[in-house]
Give the backbone structure.
Amino acid sequence: MIIGIAISMFALTALAAIIRVVRGPHLADRVIALDVALVALMAAIATHAAETGTTTYLSIVAVVAIVGFTATVALARFIVAEHEDSDIGWPKSVAPVVASVEKEPT
Amino acid sequence: MNPVSQALILAGALLAMLAGVGLLRFSTPYARFHAAGKASPIAFLLVGAGASIELGVAATAQLVVAGVALVITLPAATHLLFRATHRTLAAPHLRQDALAYAESVASEHERQRADAPAADPDAAPRPTANTERPG
């Protein structure tokens, strides 16, 4: 009973996150909403494992926790690089400094 | 099931739902990041504690790995999103704050240092041109 309520709450959280993914005005809103949906999925898997005692799916939780970080980092860099209209790399505010440092003979 | 683990799982579910409601209802991206980035790892920690009471040692180890990875990485990811938003979003309803002032001063300083050897016309001016100290 309580487990059912908890899993419904995780479903509601994921639903709210998906609504934010669809509506979000800024790209970073969509990224953090995907993160929250991922955390809700992980918590629901852990709850299911606690209820039934099957530990098969818990490796998914560990893998998703480690891998989900990389997408957020890549998208955060993409947001800045896209806004500054440069190629993926140093943002334009930092790029002249990096270029001058790389130009200097060592 | 153990009532302690049921209570922990229910508390985690409530906290996750709070994160979802905050993500849905708050008005600015900064407020949404606060709601989502702080509540969700703690919610997963609560659920993981509740589940590891029920399960064995191997499952607990997996949950601990997941929880540690989440607690380490999610604040860093949220910080990166904050920074990306701060650099790209024009928010006229927010006051020009000390962080924006410091960033503009630092970028001006770096630009002058980069310009010093050869007057580089490509050195882009900072988009936030307002360098007045606030307040």
The mean pLDDT of chain A is 83.
